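Deviations from the work plan: none for this task. Representative record:
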Amino acid sequence: MRRYFGRKLFTYTLTFFIAATIDWLIPRFMPGDPVAGLMAKQGGLSPEGAAALAQYYNNLFGLDRSMPEQFINFWIALLHGDLGRSVYVHGRPVTEAIMGAIPYTLALLIPAILLSWWAGNSFGALAARRKWLDNTVLPIGYILTATPYMWLGLVLAFVLGFSLRIFPLSGGYGFNLEPALTWRFFTDLVAHWMMPFLSLFMVMFGGWAIGMRNMIIYELESDYSRYLEALGAPQGLVRKYAFHNAMLPQITGLALQLGVIVAGSLVTEIVFSYPGIGMLLFNAIKSEDYFLLQGIFLFIIIGTLLANFVVDIVYIMVDPRTRVGMRGGTA
Amino acid sequence: MSLQVSDLRVYYRTLAGDVKALDGATFSIADKEIMGLAGESGCGKSTLGNSLIRLDGRMKYIAGSVTLDDNVMPIWDKTGMNQFRFRDVSVIPQYAMSAMNPTCKIGKMTEELLESRGENFREIKPEFLRRIDLVGLQRDVLTRYPMELSGGMKQRMVMVISTLLNPSLLIADEITSALDVSTQRAVAETLVSFRDHGFVKSMMVITHDMSILYQIADSILVMYAGKLAEKAPTSVVIERPLHPYTRMLVSSLPEVGVRYADKKLTGIPGSPPSLLNPPTGCRFRARCPLAFAKCAEEPPFVEVDTDHAVACWKATGTDA
Amino acid sequence: MTGTLNADTKMESVSGSPTNEPTALPAKKASGEFLYFAVRSKKFLVALGILIVLIGIGIFGPIIDATDPVAQNGIAMQPPTADPGNWFGTTYFGEDVFAQFANGLRATFFVGLLGGGLAALIGMAVGFIAGYFGGWLDEILNMVTNVFLVIPTLALLLVIASYLPSSWRGVPFEAIFIGLTSWPWAARAVRAQTFSLRTRDFVDLAKLSGRRGWKVIATEIAPNMSSYLFLTFILLFGGAILIGASLDFIGLGPHEGMTLGLMMYNAVTWAALNLGIWWWFIPPGLGIMATVGALYVMNVGLDEIFNPKLRDI
């Protein structure tokens, strides 16, 4: 068991190291000079002003030091939680900007992932049993899962927000409200949250439903199912075993889908101007705020690695074969 | 009579039409009888065995009746058969090695299975443990997962589980095929001991290996291309077979002590006919060295002696 | 998990897709048998039909209607009508939406082809090497694959793309970068399948007759996986399209030319939602959905054609 987790931790740490290094490397190996690029945007500077600004940028990027020194400084700063200062958020530390946006994104992601996973799997399992349900669920599932996240967001926004005016079109909460611990603020928060949540939920639901349906069919045709039926076991027992065994690959599937889900939530937030990481990213790109960009990237990486780790733990708890394999129990 | 089968027909549905895998089987198995069911691959023996307990997805019941201990078994009715399964008729499947749920401990799976069938596991458990001892397994196997057992151990475990409720009829489908010779012997002996201990009343042992049947079977039923060829007591089948197919089958068995240089192994040239559009008349006609004009008409499966039935014009003495 | 593992495709491919578990594959199928089942497979034919229509629009649309997609000729914000030249209406700036759509389709298919194709090539190369040669080579490649499997592709791409100078921000480069980062899933799938095939007898036979290394892979293993490889490519194709659209939508798309994702980016940036200019953003997303959906359904249809066990009777 320890070896397994040790190995996983090693891979994740290595991944983080590589990702962060790539993050550090890329601006330094891109054609063109980021400082020159930034400078080009500042029109109308006097030569002394330009020199001072160039000096400032070089200092900020650390480009006036040697490469190895830059690398070490980068890591020192990183481990101190210092991701630099953001241009877009008027000079505030990047970490602060990101921390402000994360609660919104998590409030969107976690319920969407959990609910869609549960609902999608349940529907998929049901569909595998009843033909009439299967004939509706399957095509809907395929359509939903092929829908680009941002487009479903746009459609929902247009239909529910613009045409029917049920939900507000943008923002995390009403522009006329101040964050406060009031019921009114809370309902307003939820009203703004509803459409992005629905959008994410629907696309993911389609994928899980189809996956689960296929897995259940596969398990119901397996040898152990046939044996149980040959011995007259009631359908309830057979289905119970099939469902449990079909869940296992769905759990690993969740880990593998995390990258897609994160990308999906980013674009969905942009559609609704929802103040999460996605919107922050959008604005960072617009304002060419490199530090903010890098910070967001690292946060996404850390979040994904953590989520992967959680899924690994859950999987071990749920699939007894992994524990046995580690005990070295095969005959 | 324990089991009586009358004109049983079971076909497989395919895109290209119905495959007539089992086309009219009539025979019976008495109490305490171990009947071997032999034939080459694709002759319909597995279809026959499986149809008696559970029709698989593609199998289609066409006609015929099955009676066990004077009760008619509605094999075409999936739910109607449930009351017979496990208690009256049970099976050791061909896939015994993967027949147990891989994510469930063996003891727990058996308990849940029994409880779901309305049996009291606590009452049965002592007998269960005794039988586990009998087949040579450790009692702690109940706390293990199937992946922790070897192939042979899983096989024996499935044998114990399948016979736990003392069924009248046990169908053993190719249970020695994947094993080495010494394990084959152990498993075969275990089967006989089940019958001798009274765990099962009668048995149908399906295999393509005649030598196993010679060891343990009381009678042998030989099938070819979906039809019954010959049924007789074991000694008769081995020493005085009447059907040409049986004779060639038996003579293709290597004998201990006989060298290839002295007596070459004879096979049966040709291959079985397609069961999608089977030929009219006797299905063995194309490969039979004794075929003659009358064989264009299908020979009925008739008794020529006590407990000895054949489907062959030559064997029943009907000459051209 | 089964299921699929492309970080860029969606969940339904999680199970029942090639990457689920390496199933025993039949040997080379006669093309006659393929055609027989192909024309009988509703899923395959419908999906193929949709794709052909879309490709047709993409190829012939800009030729028939040679309007420049970014020319601000028309009256701004016109809803679509049945008049030729105004099928999809105009944008905020008076550009012809249909022209944008047709050109965008072209670019989108190009990204799918180049990006997906590149990812397929790299993934196959890595997968074959790791799966066939095994040993320490496998260990290293596996470690690399796992690392890149965990990193969300979009995150990686946005760091790369955001630093790219404008001259590099064309559709071809976008496609190449997508191809360079989406291969890990394919590598894993190909490796698993190669693993199961390399122990088969015909491979041993080839080795006995003197064939070595790459030759064995090229002549024995790859042809027996051909259906699997094709299905993998289809999924990569769809995935590349989705990732490309996401990149464009975030603002990292090409500065020149038009893609479907770019249309939606422009629409959102210029408040199409608030102004109700739905014909600006509905067609591009619909186009992507139709393309990717058709690809997935075709994938399932082809799976059924190649794998007899899955066919309905």
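Helices of chain B lie at 45-51, 106-116, 121-134, 151-162, 181-197, 210-216, 234-239, 244-251.
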